[in-house]
Amino acid sequence: MRIGRIAVSGIVAVALALASAAAPAQGAARPSGSAAKSPTADGGPTEDGGPTRDGDPTADEDPTTAVDPFVGTGVGGRWVGRIDTFPGASVPFGMVQWSPDTPSRPDGGGYAYGDNAITGFSLTHLSGPGCPAQGDLPVLPLAGPAPAQPQTATVPLDHGQETARPGYYAVTAGGVRTELSVTTRTGAARFTYPRTGSAVLLVNAGGGATRTSGATVRVVGDRELVGQVTSGHFCGAPHATRLSFDLRFDRPFQATIWPASARGPAPGATLAFDTSLDPFVHLQAGVSYVGTDGARANLDAEGGNWDVHEVAEQARESWRDALGAIRVSGGTRARRTVFYTALYHSLLHPDTFSDADGRYRGFDGQVHSVAPGHVQYADISGWDIYRCQVPLLALLFPGRADDLADSLLADADQGGWLPKWPYADGYTGVMNGDAADAILAGIHAFGDQGFDAAHALRLMVHGAEDLDGPPGQGWYVERPGEDRYLQLGYVPNDSQDSTSHVHNGASSTLEYAVADFAVSRLAAALGDDDTAARFRVRSRNWHHLYDPATGYLRPRDAAGAFPPGPPLDLQDGRAQDGFQEGNAAQYLWMVPQDIPALVDTLGGPSAVTDRLDTFFTQLNAGPGRPYDWQGNEPGFGTPWLYDSTGRPDRTQSVVRAITDQLYGDTPGGEPGNDDLGAMSSWYVWAALGLYPETPGTTTLALSTPLFPHAVVHRPGRPDLTVTTQGDGVGEER
């Protein structure tokens, strides 16, 4: 039996770390050992590192044609539930995601493939966050007279009348053809009505997916509608934010403002058009989190084109460039669809938050500005994305990753502390741990070191050691229980925080240990040996949870006692006490910063291999069973642990089983909430046969790639080329 052979250029083989050398000048010789060369009869890549291979019709495939935006809009099973992606129009990392909403309105995505109606087309969405979010300013075209209750109006949804591709969405519903596209901060729409004197567009300013207030619309002339709405409270957080908008039409309308309600003094409007001679109504929409003047300025800067198809082609070109950062060839059409759709989902977020002129509203409530050419980002799903999506972003788009890092630093400068899951201009406290540490260290490791890492380190140490500062925005604490973590070496399991439904002392301890390791790595990279050593010691605090009597990592009380009873006190469908979103069997493996010590502690390679074999008899078991829950982020690294027990063939088998069984080119084709690209980015790494195993480092675990040939383009650095011979899993040769 041969497992298959892979060749990876651009990786230092011994350390399994990404090469950091500068890219050669155009026409210069390639580094020794590089797989990039002129086309040859044996199917080598082209001189520029692209995947063009003689006789391979997939080598020059437009990657946007392989994206299916409907993947993830369905239900994936009991422990997957709704994946919560959206099919509408977007550009990479944009402020606007114009997409349809359906009656059940899944969290963030707003669209359920199984629904049979559309409630509106709202301008903002998140891809699978797990809590209601955004869905601001839905509009709904109607062919007939205005309904008596416009807020509850719907039109039938027929999937046979839908089209979606990167940067464009269209559907015919209720007799009206709706076509949508976007720029970074604006949207363009064309509505094709029947020829009638009573065409209607409902503008529901108070119809967002979360608790809204202050919704106001105002008519300007006979072709413009401006307004604002306050919404937010993500996952129950206190903070809300104000979105302003400017809607411009290419023809006059008659407006009826809706009466005041709990959602605002003028929460919407019914706009009437006469389409008896001309069935087309064009709309340009601009948004801003600064104010109405910002929305108007964004529209002036980006919304000059009324032709939705031209806007869509520009959006598609931006996606073509972004998706072209990784070129794969070979494999089946279905597998390429899953791959490029996963990459597409990985690049939707975080969201642009600054206006075209650089202004944005900060965590202190004041208006700030980024430097020209830079962007303030928001909606950073920290706990979800630090493992996979952030390293991918830093690898492919180091400049954007630098801006992401600077955005977190600006949030902390304005609010006092690094945020866990910043939503718009506010703290949320969502999920345990201190994910910003791993994000910042990961960007520094995989990126081009283009942000102020010394300032980042100061803020990371501040969050981990300064216990007396005022809470952020009056309530936010970066590391709940940190005082006792520093005193005892673990967080006692006597409280619930960070939106956990159970006491979460054990999982908080494990997350803080990972964060401490990330701090130590950044400190070491900056030459701060004292800080590096101090935090490296703390990163071993996972040891304090190990119970030798049971062989598990377990929660402890303030006196040091483990809970009575079995180590796996499980209830079907529920997280185990001590572990946020998981149980002791699943969190046992979440020590990515100290894998050799974990293997030794659990009895050595053979014993760990046996335990992993049992663990992976189920691949997506949910929180209440002692098996893998691949649809949840703490388990992302577990399939790759066999690489550290001398059984890389088992990593290859398990990873391949996950990619083949839990991902697909269907609406239910992901193993869990997409979590703003977290779930999708895991697949992208796995398809390349790589996994960023240890946060804050460039260490990569290896498996077998899914494609015969792949090239990862890294700006300013050599391409990373992966070639494969054999299918990699149990192939007889």
TrEMBL record:
Residues 294-725 form the Glycosyl hydrolase family domain. InterPro entries: 6-hairpin_glycosidase_sf, GH-type_carb-bd, GH92_a_mannosidase_put, GH92_N, Glyco_hydro_92, PNGase. One of its GO terms (biological process) is glycoprotein catabolic process. The keyword Nucleotide-binding does not apply. One of its GO terms (molecular function) is carbohydrate binding. SUPFAM superfamilies: Six-hairpin glycosidases (SSF48208). It comes from the Bacteria. Keywords: Signal. Residues 67-288 form the Glycosyl hydrolase family 92 N-terminal domain. Residues 1-25 form the signal peptide. Residues 27-36 have a biased composition (Low complexity). Gene3D superfamilies: 2.70.98.10, alpha-1,2-mannosidase, alpha-1,2-mannosidases domains, GH92 mannosidase domain. GO terms for cellular component: cytosol. This is Alpha-1,2-mannosidase.
